[in-house]
Structure formats: C-alpha cells, structure tokens
Amino acid sequence: MGKIKTVEYFRVKPRWLMVKITDENGEYGWGEATLEGHDLAVEGCLEEMIVRIVGMEANEIENIWQTFWRHGFYRGGPVFMSALSGIDIALWDLKGKVFKMPVYELLGGKVRSKVQVYCWIGGDRPADVERAAKARVAQGLKHVKMNATEDLNWIDSPSKLDATVERIKEVKALGLDVGLDFHGRLHKGMAKQLAAALEPHRPLFIEEPLLCEHPEAIKQLADRTTIPIAFGERLYTRWDIKRFLEDASVDILQPDIAHAGGISETKRIAQMAEAYDVAIAPHCPLGPVAFAASLHIGLTSPNFTILEMSLGMHYNTEAGDDIDLLTYLKDPEVFAIGEGGFIKAPTKYGLGIDIDEEKVRAIAKDTKPWQCKVFHGPDGSIREW
C-alpha cells in the first residue's frame, strides 16, 4: 500500500458529496462527505485537507485522522467532521481493496450476517402515508420512519398533534413498526404533549424530540416517557455524546457516518454507547457510499439495532432527476432488501460496492449546491426545518 497521490471530490445529485482517494499504485477508495445544505463549506475544508494529505501513507488511517483532529487546532463541528468523514471512509475502502478483504474484517469481523434496515414514508409535510407504507411492505420492509409533524410554533394548538397519532395508527395497522422523527421541530412544551399522546401507540422510537442543544430538556423528557429516545445526527464526535450517555437521556444513538468522522469515529461512538447500554441506529438519509460504510458499522457492532436507508426517500425523488440511492452503483443488487427487511453483508473487498465513476463525473459537471428547506409560520417567523 503506497502513499496518497490524489484526492478528488464530486458534488452529485440529489445532494451528495463523494470523495475519491487514489494511491501511488493506482488503487483507490470512495468516501462520502455529504453535509446537506453546506456543500461549498465542506468542499473548502477538503481543499485545505488535500494539501496536507497528499504524500501521506494511505495505510495509516488513524494517524491521518489524528493529524487533522489535533494539528488543525480547531476541532469538531459538522463542516470539519464531514470533510474528515469523506477522507476516512475512502481510506478504509482503499485499505480493504489493497488487503483484499471487506472493511468489516478489518474492524474485527462480523457479529451478524445481515443488517436490518428501514426506509422513509411521507415527506417534510406528511399527509397521506398509508399508500407509501403499503409500498414499503411490498418491498419486504418491516420498519419505516416518517416525520412526526409539519413545522410548528413554539407553543401551538394541541389539536395539531392529533394528525400524528392518526398517521401512526394507519401505518401500524399494516404490520409495520414506525419510528417518528420530530426533526427538532418541536419545542419543549409541544414535545412533552406529543410524546404522551404517542405512548399508547408504541412507536419504535422518537427521533430528535428536542434539539441536542437542550440536554436538560431531553433529560426531562426521557425521564417522563417510556418511548425510546433517539438522536445523534447533529452530534459529531465521541466528546459530543459523552454528556448524553452520562445523563442516561438517550436510548438509541444515531451517528451519521458522513458527519461523524467516518468509519473510525462512528465505530468508537458505537463502542462507547455499548458501555452505557445504548443502542446504535446509524443515521443515513444519504448516498450509496455512506450507506455501505454504515453497513460495516452495523455488521461489527453488538449494540447495532437498525440502519436508515434512503431508497425512494423524498429528498432523492422530489427533484425529478430520476436519481436515487442505487443510481451510482454498477451492481445495485448489493443493496437488495431480503426477507424480513434485511440486507446481507457485502462480500466484495473494501466497502463492497462498485461506484460508476463515469456517471459520477458526468452528473457532477452540472450539480448545483443543494439548499436546506425553509419553513415560515403564518406570521412570517422562521420555523425549524
């Protein structure tokens, strides 16, 4: 395994940022540095990193990770960690290919042979979800996730929560387990009411019931509900999660491998969580490289429970470009959903996927930066996306 020769990045539709690292022997690996709505910032960070990484030993993944973490002086945050994630994932893929083994073997080997997945139903403004849920059943899925509510005011009419309860009843009647994503849209007064209303209907989990910048409120909510509390997509390092593990305020951590320092840091987060009896359900509404990398975390982590999959997700399909999770794969069958909603462990080297580089380069030529959604209340005030 040789020194790093080139690092390239590609902004591609619908909203993903892929990274390719090639060593001096011509071997290469793919990573993903997607940070939804902040492409240009991550690209700028990658430009700074590329200057330092070229010429380093590609085999020394941990040394490279620590170099950027410690010698950069300023640490953490979504932009820096997403750029680092893209590099880290690509290096693991490259190393697996060079040593001719799947990444999960490099991580100590599998603890399971397949990974449970869930997919989305509905969009940012959930309404008719029953039809979408039936389509997921036909795909073989047993678990789905949907947004719990539309955007809400700081304190809003309690009647606006009624539709959430009706939707979960509709979907569960089809035999599906449902995770509900609050998306940080609700503030404390509304989140408490909705959690109480949902409790009799036993959702799989409630995700980001409150924003992680309110740890004291999350702790209060966790102490008053029996529903598992899930969050972590906006936590980027093992240091970010310490408070929540020590508080016993989270039941399911959801690190996003494209935001949380790649395979190296996500694996460390999973191991920390295990020591606190907390499950891991990687957040991944992203592209095929991030999803493949997350599969290897799931395959090697005893406390893994379920993995998000963006197949057919509204963010992929709403632009009308006919681009989805499988678009950039030469062999889409590697992500085939089997009986019970499981995906089998990949068998090829590295991440186990073959990226269609020609298609990546072609689509990258005219892909504009993706913008985050914007919501306003009837009074014109800004609401959480």
Automatic annotation (TrEMBL):
<dbReference type="GO" id="GO:0009063">
    <property type="term" value="P:amino acid catabolic process"/>
</dbReference>
<keyword id="KW-0460">Magnesium</keyword>
<dbReference type="InterPro" id="IPR018110">
    <property type="entry name" value="Mandel_Rmase/mucon_lact_enz_CS"/>
</dbReference>
<dbReference type="Pfam" id="PF13378">
    <property type="entry name" value="MR_MLE_C"/>
</dbReference>
<keyword id="KW-0479">Metal-binding</keyword>
<dbReference type="InterPro" id="IPR013342">
    <property type="entry name" value="Mandelate_racemase_C"/>
</dbReference>
<dbReference type="InterPro" id="IPR029017">
    <property type="entry name" value="Enolase-like_N"/>
</dbReference>
<dbReference type="InterPro" id="IPR023592">
    <property type="entry name" value="Galactonate_deHydtase"/>
</dbReference>
<protein>
    <recommendedName>
        <fullName>Mandelate racemase/muconate lactonizing enzyme C-terminal domain-containing protein</fullName>
    </recommendedName>
</protein>
<dbReference type="InterPro" id="IPR034593">
    <property type="entry name" value="DgoD-like"/>
</dbReference>
<keyword id="KW-0456">Lyase</keyword>
<dbReference type="GO" id="GO:0034194">
    <property type="term" value="P:D-galactonate catabolic process"/>
</dbReference>
<dbReference type="Pfam" id="PF02746">
    <property type="entry name" value="MR_MLE_N"/>
</dbReference>
<dbReference type="InterPro" id="IPR013341">
    <property type="entry name" value="Mandelate_racemase_N_dom"/>
</dbReference>
<dbReference type="InterPro" id="IPR029065">
    <property type="entry name" value="Enolase_C-like"/>
</dbReference>
<dbReference type="GO" id="GO:0008869">
    <property type="term" value="F:galactonate dehydratase activity"/>
</dbReference>
<dbReference type="InterPro" id="IPR036849">
    <property type="entry name" value="Enolase-like_C_sf"/>
</dbReference>
<dbReference type="GO" id="GO:0046872">
    <property type="term" value="F:metal ion binding"/>
</dbReference>
<feature type="domain" description="Mandelate racemase/muconate lactonizing enzyme C-terminal">
    <location>
        <begin position="126"/>
        <end position="228"/>
    </location>
</feature>
